[in-house]
Amino acid sequence: MKQLLFRWFDSDVGYSFRHSPVAIGSAFVAFVCVFCAAFAGWVSPHNPFDLGSLELSDARLPPSWSAGGTFKYLLGTDDQGRDILSAVIYGARISIVVGAASVVLSALVGVALGLLAGFKGGWVDSFLMRLCDVMLSFPPILVALLMAGVGRALFPNADTTVAFGVLILSISLTKWVDYARTVRGSTLVERNKEYVQAARVTGVSPLRIMRRHVLPNVTGPVMVLATIQVATAIITEATLSFLGVGVPPTSPSLGTLIRVGNDYLFSGEYWITVFPGLMLVLIVLSVNLLGDWLRDVLNPRLQ
């Protein structure tokens, strides 16, 4: 593990990372957000979803630096007396997990179909690309909203696992198209190169050629696209939760917290919605900056 880490730091990507303040800063912010979300039970001062520990008398308290605030709740409380700081940490964990899982599912489906379309060509390529055109004709948020709404209607009493599965599937339904088109274009270039022709001559099966030879050479654009789409998926999940068709109310994400605080925004209780919104901005901005840096590093035209 240490050798791999040292090799990465000595590589061109590691050199670019060490000399890019934006990449270092965004990576640090993303690491802090992911770390706090992953270890929310240890990092957060309270468990905001433990109904037995909530006190309605502490509802809508302002942040600790405002008049009437207390250091027990650094960022204040919401309408149910939940600690905003703890709720933001737990909500970020849900948003990050849903966003990352939807990107992984989209990448698996899109990369597989893109490899198949670019390597096989012919009617397979035409059919898959027309399917991509059909999927691109629908706004992604509309498809996700419809899918999530249908899932809620079909499984009104579903447990949390099923609800999360429906949400991840709804976000992934249109995201795979970007991977398929990107990988298909790269595969069209790679399949005519000498190493692929040599593998064909020696009798290597097409599936093995795609998996062992073509796939490693098309992963660069996929990594960049996946990094950027993590931020897009998190925003999509927050939008669905804000509209009321996202994660269950018992496990609110950042979008749900923003929606709850939106009802109290104009009454002066800004902290209920502002701090979840800031957390969402920090996560998305740091991931987007990392994606931009990775795109520039992996682009040979910019070397």
TrEMBL record:
Q: What top-level branch of life does the organism fall under?
A: Bacteria
- A GO CC term assigned to this protein in UniProt: plasma membrane
Bilayer topology term: Multi-pass membrane protein
Q: Which residues form the ABC transmembrane type-1 domain?
A: 92-291
InterPro entries reported in the protein's UniProt record: BP-dependent_transpt_permease (IPR050366), MetI-like (IPR000515), MetI-like_sf (IPR035906)
The record's subcellular location field reads: Cell membrane
Under Pfam families, the record lists: BPD_transp_1 (PF00528)
Keywords linked to the UniProt accession: Cell membrane, Membrane, Transmembrane, Transmembrane helix, Transport
Name the Gene Ontology biological process terms.
transmembrane transport
The record's principal subcellular location, in a coarse class, is membrane
Q: Do you know which PANTHER family this protein is assigned to?
A: ABC TRANSPORTER PERMEASE PROTEIN, OLIGOPEPTIDE TRANSPORT SYSTEM PERMEASE PROTEIN APPC
Q: Which family does it belong to?
A: Belongs to the binding-protein-dependent transport system permease family.
**How is this protein named in the record?**
ABC transporter permease
Q: In which organism is this protein found?
A: Rhodoferax koreensis
